[in-house]
Amino acid sequence: LPTRLHSQVYLLAVVGVCGCCGALRPRYKRLVDNIFPEDPEDGLVKTNMEKLTFYALSAPEKLDRIGAYLSERLIRDVGRHRYGYVCIAMEALDQLLMACHCQSINLFVESFLKMVAKLLESEKPNLQILGTNSFVKFANIEEDTPSYHRSYDFFVSRFSEMCHSSHDDMEIKTK
């Protein structure tokens, strides 16, 4: 019995009482982190995205935290010019938005719109296009209970600016 107790105490010490181990991170953060591959060229890890979607559907009260954490990652990746991971984050957000039609979606939408705004503020046309496409997907979702407290002023202003873009590449200008 004493050796078994010692091994359990040792295991607790090794597993991460120091706080550096991922096992102590909240489950939603681990699930979000797992959708990002080592190499962004590999794209979204589909099986892990399915796990995250299942978790979000099973625990809709966690959806706002999932959105906030994805937003945090996206903002960090935009700042570090890691655009492959930005695309993965937006793909994940789009999939969660389409899959999760529930009462707590309003809290998630705030994080989603914050990330779309961040992409639209970028000087990179490809990020602006990514943000625009995500906003269009969001706008086409029928809400069970519409939220009238959201402000779309920024989006109206930014989309108007983008319509009058003076970008050299006509294809990008059109998108």
UniProtKB/TrEMBL annotation:
Signal peptide: none annotated. SUPFAM superfamilies: ARM repeat (SSF48371). Coiled coil: none annotated. InterPro entries: ARM-type_fold, EFR3-like_ARM, EFR3_Homologs. One of its GO terms (biological process) is protein localization to plasma membrane. Transmembrane segments: none annotated. GO terms for cellular component: plasma membrane. Belongs to the EFR3 family. This is EFR3 homolog B. The lineage of its organism: Eukaryota, Metazoa, Chordata, Craniata, Vertebrata. The gene is EFR3B.
